[in-house]
Amino acid sequence: MESAADLELLLACAAWAADESQTGTVAEKAAKVSDWVCFVETAQRHGLAALAFTALEACGKVPADGLAAEFATSAKRGLVLSAEAGRVARLMGEAGVCALVFKGPVLAQMAYRDPAQRTFQDVDLLVAPQQLEAAIALLTRDGYAETGDERVRAARRTMRPWCNELAFHHAGRRTWLDLHWFLLPPFFPARIPTSDVFERAIPVELGGGTICTLAPDDHLVYLCAHACKHAWESLGAVADIACLLRHPGVDQSRARHRARQWGAAKMFDFSIGRTAALPVEARLGDLRLLKTLSPSLTRWGSHAATRAIIPTETDWETMPKAWTLTPARQCIWRLLRIAGMT
Q1: 134 sits in which H/E element
Q2: Which residue, 71, 98, 112, 144, could crosslink 53 as a Cys pair with Cβ 3.0–4.6 Å?
Q3: Minimal CA–CA distance to 212: which of 134, 128, 126, 139?
Q4: pTM higher than 0.90, yes or no?
């Protein structure tokens, strides 16, 4: 059970990541935490354990042992994934496939004072839709394999028009990679054209070489929309947005104009407002969230309805073997599972 004290301390740590003058607030919130084992577990769930370690250390509080271990693991994993992201991006470039690295190691480097403060588990790559098959073939030759068994992969292929990413794993390198051809699902209310972000992509140094990533404004709008898509289930999004706002390449007026063009203006305003007044209340009401982030009730209703019938990995794995994997039958199975009839 997540306590209000734990969540408030995490929000204070997120504020400190963007503004070191918040050290006193971190100390004040830390004094209210009664169960540090529970706090470490909560911080891990929200992807903020490494950041919490550095924030507590900065204010003179002795961090729990679990936080120190998480920080060390995060730093090590960050170096590995940074090198891997750079390697794969350059590999694709040499094969004529344009790929942008986003979130993960790039965001850690662009937005945080210490990249080890941001915890991430995989590499995210964006390619143009017309180069998707070439990118999949290249990853396969490199040793990556799409997750799931053959049946799940076949089902996923039939649903590809309604999806925006595929997950891959490299057993030898023990790394995970998400390959995107759109930044957001096709059924989501906001639309971020892949061609738009490629036009404004910027070069950055990563993993011992130069790769390309989203322009800071585009990255900011994406993070706001992505957080709203997941209904702000992770407070890690608060830290990401608050820290990226400090980047010299971010112009909030320009970013909001872009968000309006992409149908994400309310998501942008909600997200910026939530991070500008840190630390904020531990939880926001579901009603306020739903009222604020929807560009229009009709489009948001369409998004919710589509989400209800688009199958998940669990749906594919539990679907009866005798069923033909047509999109219609996959959607029917999804509805049966939601209704508890399986």
Answers
A1: helix 132-141
A2: 71
A3: 126
A4: no
